[in-house]
User: What shape does this take?
Amino acid sequence: MPRDGAITFGDLVGKLNAVRVTCDRCGRTGSYQLHNLIEERGQDTKVLDWLDQLTEHCPIKKAHNWNDQCAARCLDLPKAP
Assistant: This one.
């Protein structure tokens, strides 16, 4: 799978133990153990592709309103060197 400069789960090994997700708009919050994500999806999975799949049933996302978009984010990615 081409990376296109994207962060993969493998890139986070040794930097994060868990991937935290939150959305200020819908109240989504969760923490996913990195070793489980790698085991289930593989170390080459792009984090943003996984996040897109995780939020595919979000009512805000499904509304396709450009003025009110889903704000789900992985909190710790900017902190991971």
